[in-house]
């Protein structure tokens, strides 16, 4: 191979791993770029969006002991993240109050969700240029392994019904199950779950 061709080869060093405190600034930057309030209606419909805002302190606590953060990096640049939180920590996040309240009214496989060891799938975001390349599937595979090793049976989340892109991807590609819905602040939310035993 000529040296000219070798210079044009892009060597990709992709890794999916547990997030650390050094990843927090990039996670927050990607979160802000995907927040509903920072996007146009057209962008939200085409690309999806995130609704929950977290702080550096939130992410530090989640990384240390209140959840699991998984990141996908290519050449040491963050391409995407996914994080879950314990049910106890989720109860401290006011944004999640309606979901926590509604979990009591939802069943899965003839059991109330309270009968399972659950965590809350809090948020995921993939940088725009990296979408459709299998990153979300890799993040969920890593997260699932981590959650199973910690004894969890279900990961529960909510997705805004008008977030069609995210809802479709999570149900059709990742395999989350629709369990119910509720209305909060005139917005419909779909309760979904990742069965960690499947």
Short description:
This protein is an alpha+beta fold. The chain is 36% helix and 30% strand.
Q: Would you write up a description of this structure?
A:
This protein is α+β, with helices and mostly antiparallel strands and 198 residues long. The chain has a single domain, classed as 3-Layer(aba) Sandwich (Aminopeptidase), CATH 3.40.630.30. 36% of the residues lie in helices and 30% in strands. The protein has helices at residues 3-8, 24-34, 41-47, 56-66, 87-90, 97-103, 135-149, 164-174, and strands spanning 14-18, 67-74, 77-86, 107-108, 111-112, 118-126, 154-160, 177-184, 187-195. The chain has a seven-stranded mixed beta sheet, sandwiched between helices. Strand 4 and strand 5 (111-112) form a beta hairpin. It is globular. The model is unreliable at 1-9 (pLDDT under 50).
Name the CATH homologous superfamily. Gcn5-related N-acetyltransferase (GNAT)
Low-confidence stretches are 1-9
Which percent bin holds the helix content?
25-40%
Radius of gyration: 17 Å
End-to-end separation in angstroms reads: 46 Å
Strand and helix layout:
Layout: H1 3-8, E1 14-18, H2 24-34, H3 41-47, H4 56-66, E2 67-74, E3 77-86, H5 87-90, H6 97-103, E4 107-108, E5 111-112, E6 118-126, H7 135-149, E7 154-160, H8 164-174, E8 177-184, E9 187-195
Parallel strand pairs: 6-7
Antiparallel strand pairs: 1-2, 2-3, 3-6, 4-5, 7-9, 8-9
